[in-house]
Amino acid sequence: MLENALTNKNKSLDYKDMTKELEKNVYALQHKIREKNLPVIVLLEGWGASGKGSLISDMIQMLDPRFFKVYSVMPADEAERRYPMMKRFWAKTPKRGTMAFMDRSWYQELAIAKMEEGISDEEYSRRINTVNTFERQLSDDGCLIIKLFLHISQKEQKKRFLKLREDSATKWRVTELDKKRHKNYEAYYKQFDDMLMKTNTPHCPWRIIDSTDRNFTRFQVFNILVSQITNAVNTEPAENMLLEETAHHFELSPCPKLSEVKLEGKTVQPSKYYDLLKKSQKEISRLHGKIYKKKIPVVMVFEGWDAAGKGGTIKRVSYALDPRGFEAVPISAPDKNELAHHYLWRFWNSIPKTGHITIFDRSWYGRVMVEKIEGFTSKERCAMAYREINEFEQELTQEGVVILKFWLHIDKDEQLRRFNDRMSNPEKQWKITDEDWRNREKWDQYEAAVDEMIAKTSTAAAPWHIIEANSKLYARLKVMDVIIDVLSKKIKNAEKNDK
Question: Is 144 helix (H, G, I), strand (E, B) or coil?
Fold first, then answer.
């Protein structure tokens, strides 16, 4: 892609004057972006001294600063490396109607990491897929991503480095790493070219910018901004959406339908419950210490029928955990800020660091249940969610996260009994709402949605565990048994790999 990028300049044109008109258009388009609730990411990658910083300054000069942010992306620090690679970039995605300008981006985790961190070919390919998936998910959600690579020759880079070093005020900008990269220009060139080709997708194409001449560079960049933003704001969301098939190649873990799960007889004697509970909690506490030492992150997802006992089960599990090493995250309807982002944004922000546990009381699965049934989200976006969720969980598990997903299952009679119990008990009345009764009227719709959800998202890496919960005591102990079994196996494998 880089081979012919430095041959496009027409010397007969006055690019400086042409750019002035384009600058005015960018200012006007910012208002269109707000009107259309369009999130826009403009990211700049390229060679050292190619002019990324000055170009960003030029782009934002005419814009209202209340509606954009500028990020200068540095290599991940020690704290950031304790999370999955993409977490810090999800946090930087802009709200709908705003813009994000990025001086370098997630692409530093690809070619640069391959050259300087020595990541394997396998890991490099995995990261390529991760980035392509990330960009496609944002694009499918209506985000415009403009990717610019600023290209200069080795000769031009040398000239710019010499000029910077001649001035005492700017010589600090040429680092030892810059010198190393310049010396190995050809090797970096090949790696950059490979990265650009493998991430040049229909929904997020690369634009290679000839950055030899400043006026020509500015014209190219502003021309691209105006044309791509104009096209995006003039395209209706339904037309702009890249519809993808939901059936993709994920290794599934078969699960029964809810109607096939037998609830009768799944009980435990109250006289034995407390001894069994104490024993299980003690073991979970021991395993928590192990996963902390082995730096294994864990995500627990609790879904289930209203009044199925999610809160009580989470409470018993949490009691066994070191409070410094876990967080319980209750998920309700998204607030205004959360609605302004991709629906996975708020969940990425709560992913645990290595050695820690996050417990979700409800989760991203609301997209294919309540949002789908209540019509809060379009059918097209709900249909795409199965793939997005599998990709999300696959990304986490590939980064070493253990995912435990529980569906707490009760029958309609048991739910009604618990609803009535809550209604008649002043201390429990806060737990029952009108929405609970409305959801109960749609039991059959929800059951069908849950069956589809489990069938499409119970993967080998992140399977669903259906918990018979007509007996709360039995359900709590079974959840703990699953936690103990899964974490024990993970720790055993980690210890084996350490040898």
Answer: strand
Could you give the 3-state DSSP secondary structure of residue 28?
Answer: helix
Q: Are 468 and 409 in contact (CB under 8 A)?
A: yes
Paired tokens of 381: 């976006």
SS3 356: coil
- State the average pLDDT over residues 111-138: 97
Q: pLDDT digits over 381-425, tens only?
A: 999 999 999 999 999 999 999 999 999 999 999 999 999 999 998
pLDDT at 6: 72
Domain ranges of the chain: 15-240, 258-498
145 near 200, Cβ under 8 Å? Answer: no
Identify the pLDDT of residue 44: 98
Mean pLDDT of the region 87-96: 98
* Contact between 480 and 284 (Cβ < 8 Å): yes
| 15-240 and 258-498 in the same fold | yes
CA distance 313 to 248: 33
Q: What CATH number labels 258-498?
A: 3.40.50.300
Amino acid in the structure at residue 174? V
* Proportion of the chain above pLDDT 70, given as a percent: 97
| Contacts of 485 by beta carbon, 8 Å cutoff, 6+ apart | none
Per-residue pLDDT reduced to its tens digit, 221-280: 999 999 999 999 998 765 444 444 444 678 999 899 999 999 999 999 999 999 999 999
Alpha carbons 321 and 327: distance in angstroms, whole number: 10
Average confidence (pLDDT) over 492-498 = 89
Q: Which long-range contacts (CB under 8 A, 24 or more apart) does 363-370 make?
A: 363/301, 363/302, 363/303, 363/331, 364/389, 364/392, 365/301, 365/303, 365/389, 365/453, 365/457, 366/331, 367/343, 368/449, 368/452, 368/453, 368/457, 369/303, 369/446, 369/449, 369/450, 369/453, 370/439
Residue corresponding to tokens 């972006």: 33
Helix (DSSP H) and strand (DSSP E) numbers for the chain:
20, 10
3-state secondary structure of 41: strand
Sequence-ordered list of residues with C-beta below 8 angstroms from that of 271, at least 6 positions apart, any chain: none
Beta strands in 336-401 (DSSP E): 357-361
Q: What pTM does this model have?
A: 0.94
Strand order across the 68-72 sheet: 68-72, 99-103, 40-46, 144-151, 206-210
pLDDT: which is higher, 12 or 370: 370
Q: Which fold does the domain 15-240 belong to in CATH?
A: Rossmann fold (3.40.50)
| Cα–Cα distance measured from residue 407 to residue 454, given in angstroms and rounded to the nearest whole number | 9
459: DSSP letter: B
